[in-house]
Amino acid sequence: MKFRDEYRDPASVHRLAEAIAQTAKRPWTLMEVCGGQTHAIVRFGIDRLLPPDVSLVHGPGCPVCVTPVEFVDKAIEIAARPGVTLCSFGDMLRVPGTQTDLLGARAKGADVRFVYSPLDALALARAEPERHVVFFAVGFETTAPANAMAVYRARREGIRNFSMLASHVLVPPALCALLDSPTNRVQGFLAAGHVCTVMGYEEYEPIANRYGVPIVVTGFEPVDILEGVYMCVAQLEQGRSEVENQYCRAVLREGNRPAQEIIRDVFRIVPRRWRGMGEIAQSGLGLSDAYLDFDAETRFGKVEPAVEQDSECISGLILRGERKPSECPAFGTRCTPERPLGVTMVSGEGACAAYYRYRRARVAAAVDG
Amino acid sequence: MMGGDGLALSCPLPAGDGGLVQLAHGGGGRAMERLLDTVIRAAFDEPLLGHRHDGAVFDVGGPIAFTTDSYVVKPLIFPGGDIGTLAVNGTVNDLAMCGARPLYLSVGFILEEGLPIVTLRQIVLSMREAAAASGVRLVTGDTKVVERGKADGMFVNTAGIGLIVAPAVIEPGSVRPGDVVILSGDIGRHGISVMAARAGLAFETAIESDCAPLAVPVLDLVDSGVAVHCLRDLTRGGLASALVEIAETAGLAVRLEEASIPIGAEVSAACEILGLDPLHVANEGRFIAFVAPEDAEQAVKILHSHEVARNTVVIGEVAQSPPGQVSCMGPFGVERVIDMLNGEQLPRIC
User: Residues B344, A106: contact at Cβ < 8 Å?
Assistant: First the structure.
């Protein structure tokens, strides 16, 4: 398949792994920001191709994982109302709230549907004018333009039976929060390629400067990730801390301007709590004043902060890159995708789920041992 | 009994009685008799159905395999098949996987009030065609009608009986270390085709379901004297779930070579877009066979002679340990674990 096979070419992969081994003279800890990258790393065993001194820790870039529990609870509450149809992306439906998840709410009679695009939810609102359709919008900057477009069109077409429960998050403030943490051990970042496709990477330049960390905008295929690691390690060895673009086939420095414009039109920047990380200032998107009529919180009441239940789950540490799933004593025993203790085990892009899916036996053995 | 000639061109059914299924069609009275006569019995030129008895009475003359399955697919008609082809082929395939020659089927229809009779007719004709292709007789059935909104158009259950022809027991417990794992073709087409039809996803080329009867190639394999230890048709949960189930039951390990697993370019692309693992995507016309290593080459050769299995390949082998684990050697020489599908298959966010 074009645009995939060349980035999974074994010869290129081994050549890059060798180049990294030649370049790295000291131990380095890098974080891949996006859950899609984590998934590829674990699936293809890319971390095993690296020299032992270069270590990858997994970042907070799984939108499902970081959606705060109170938004899931609110979505469930809204879905249970008569006349409401709640739509979201497929993997959001499995995320546990305080009591249950959206699939559980559906089993109890709520009208919960998964859609492939927010515009499908809007089409549903057009087709079923007697129902009120709520789209539960989660995600990073990647999904924000399409979600913004749905609200924009709803207003333009005067569709009154459509609203959005918006729990969007932004990457740069989360990187700053990680770097500000006294326990941080990340020395360089592989930034999320798709987020930068939309936003570009100008906004990462002050972060690289201020904290003295290299940030390499990186794609999602094995060759992309290894090249990103190589570029990051090369910067660290040379004492540089710049923003570089590995994913140049998709990302421009200025990003996608029209996409940014519609985000700015429909959303405004708000403080947001991240599951496992707490509140981060200026790290979320909520609907802007002009679109408040389409805000599910206007219609169904504000989301109230919930207390995250104390459990042995270490997903907060995992989302901050301070622990790996293999270091959790509950991994694969008391915590599995069927009975997850925390959200990093739920989403397909959560680090724990990726470890469980691709290397369970080996990790379980290591934990036992 | 049901010759293949004329199936596609001359339909023996009366063309009238367009309209919709009504509750009366399941009420046991005249309306139901008319539906059965004009749509169902008319499709199957089956003497046992003509007896209008409470059940079908026959002699099979040996040990049998007996299986049942219910079909609830949405949409009812999808590229490459419909719920009728699925309902016949699914049960025929389950019988074949037991090393049995499929002989008789029952069918239970649960129809939703308002289903166009023309749709029912099309699906019944597909069943006739599928039954004829596998030489299996549909000898007894039942029809119920439920209120509008209580079923997705129609649900179908089939049960089947087959005569055991395999010389040895074919089941997960018969798998041995060293056995070779054979896959009868490319995977994932049924699941992607249905998912695309359901969600209105438009790909550049339509992906057709792989729905097909597997009894003929499987029985050829069994008859040839190849030491077949286990057979499994790949349905929901895909190749991964079938392999894990067998490995766990047998208490043995299965090791695969990822590069050897055939996946069509369209399926591969659709899975990339939707964030699905093709190993978890449903099939309806593919099976795996565990055979003794010395017979593997012959088994592949036999299967290649059948159109439905012409792309048969060896994908891995059985090892002693770790028990119950399926693993896969990836393209860069790193092994990963293959797990069953957890929960429903849901597309990811981004």
Answer: no
- Mutation for A interface: B268, B342, B344, B345, most A CBs within 10 A: B342
- Taking the model in full, what pTM does it have? 0.86
Candidates A9, A65, A114, A116, partner chain B, best to mutate (most B CBs within 10 A): A116
Residue A28's domain comprises 5-61+183-245
A chain contacts of residue B202, beta-carbon cutoff 8 Å: none
Is the pLDDT confidence value at B239 over 50? Answer: yes
For tokens 């990963």, name the residue: B336
- What distance in Å separates the CA atoms of residue B259 and residue B333, rounded to the nearest whole number? 11
Distance, in Å, from the CA atom of B297 to the CA atom of A185, rounded to the nearest integer, reads: 54
Cα B109 to Cα B146: distance, rounded to the nearest angstrom: 10
- Structural domain B172-338, CATH architecture: Alpha-Beta Complex (3.90)
Query: For residue A244, how far is the Cα from the chain centroid?
Result: 21
- pLDDT tens by residue, A313-365: 898 889 888 899 989 999 988 898 888 888 888 777 789 988 988 887 655 44
Q: What is the ipTM of this complex?
A: 0.81
Write the CA distances from A356 to A56, B242, B323, integer angstroms.
17, 19, 17
Contact A222 B347 (CB under 8 A): no
Burial class, B22, CB count within 10 angstroms (exposed 0-12 / middle 13-18 / buried 19+) = middle
Burial B333-344 (b: 16+ CB within 10 A, else e): ebbbbbbbbbee
How close, in Å, is residue A238 to chain B by CA atoms?
29
Q: In terms of CA atoms, which chain A residue is nearest residue B335?
A: A45
Q: Is the peptide bond before B12 cis (omega within 30 degrees of 0)?
A: no
Q: Count H helices, E strands: chain B?
A: 10, 13
Report the CATH fold assignment for B23-54+61-164. Answer: 60s Ribosomal Protein L30; Chain: A; (3.30.1330)
What string of DSSP letters covers B54-123? SS------S-EEEEEEEE--SSSEETTEEHHHHHHHHHHHHHHHTTEEEEEEEEEEEEETT-BHHHHHHH
Q: Which residues contact A188 (CB under 8 A, 6 or more apart)?
A: A28, A29, A30, A31, A213, A214, A215, A216, A232, A233, A235, A236
Phi-psi region of B49 (alpha: psi -120 to 50; beta: other; left: phi over 0): alpha
